[in-house]
Amino acid sequence: MKSLTKTAVACAVSFAAINAFAETQITVATVNNGHMIEMQKLTPEFEKQYPDIKVKWVTLEEGVLRQNVTQDIANGSGLYDVMTIGMYEAPIWGERGWLEPIDTSGSYDVDDILPSIRGGLSYDGTMYASPFYGESSMVMYRKDLAEKAGVTISDRDSWEDIRNAAAAMNDPENGVYGICLRGKAGWGDNMAFLTAMANSFGARWFDMDWKPQLESAEWKNAVSFYVDMMGKYGPPGASGNSFNENLALFNEGKCGMWIDATIAASFVTDPKQSKVADKVGFAQSPYSKTEKGANWLWSWALGIPAATKNAEAAQTFVRWATSKDYIKLVGETNGWGAVPTGTRQSTYENPKFQKAAVFADAELKAINSANPNDSTLEPSPYVGVQFAAIPEFQAIGTTTGQMISGALAGSLSVDQALKSANRSADRQMRQAGYY
């Protein structure tokens, strides 16, 4: 009887252990954009393949996501097992030991990842986040409206050319605005766009002594040009618009032009989402003085915080979601024009993708042209195109974004906005001991 009891207990313990493993749950924090939402829809495929892992999603607006994951990882709270981060966070947090190195062994084929994307997510040769999609920025425009207005939009137009085209296409009485650009405050919202624009005007965030340069003539020229153009030819309420809001406007046929992330190309050319899918053209980003830094470089990527208690399961999920097989799954499920792009060379070499994605060449050209190590006309001490890869930048960029959004809304002058932003940046850099 004792023997049977021991056997029963052993079986129960064994079953409990198996059951506990079967119920491993990972929490994934992500941004509320189209490709990430599609990943959530395809999660049952992952759980079918790995029945011992269950995925819980926390989906947040971009600014809220950044705040939450930054707070979580800095405190070592371990609320999330996988978090959506980017090229700004990955090398900084990797250096601090806050992230697990990504397992790129075996069939993952890390060499297939575009070098600029892989490098931007690495520190000291180790990749600390795996790219779900990568992007630069480019011009998306209505070919029919441009033709009707008698304007031509080309690669690397001047900003003056873009303003003239916006004026020609602007038709607010019929609900069409010449140009849609980000205005919502945030270092990853309006400042992602505005930094690239300002770079092309010859601006930089800091000089070689790390002193903020926001009151320079170059910044004033860029921001004044932006505020004036958006006031005349942009949609109403532009100071509240970021990627998702402008995407909705463009897909509804309300924008003559939109300069934003290359990843948007798959959405604006999708007839299921866009009313103007067959009327969209693409061009490389405009510039004023220099092409350096005129278009940004970014990747939304999946990182694993060091505080996770489910590192193995998290690695399994990250490898699945950023694999060639996942891209194939999306292509076969939703069509090859809808796959997450900007990450793997094999995607651009795939004949099915080439046939489906009219934007493929323009997107890859933009990504390959961005150089985070040489993004300003005058020398600068930082790495990054649309950001400076230092811990203090997140706060500095957000404050600057708030000031410029205020100028766009008309509550501040451009000079007032940049003076206030520069003063705040100077204070933070002094407190951090840069000078």
Automatic annotation (TrEMBL):
Gene3D superfamilies membership: Periplasmic binding protein-like II
Protein known as: ABC transporter substrate-binding protein
Subcellular location: Periplasm
InterPro entries listed in its UniProt record: Bact_solute-bd_prot1, SBP
Family: Belongs to the bacterial solute-binding protein 1 family.
N-terminal signal peptide: 1-22
Main location: periplasm
Keyword hit for Chloroplast: no
Pfam families xrefs: SBP_bac_1
Keywords: Signal
Keyword hit for ATP-binding: no
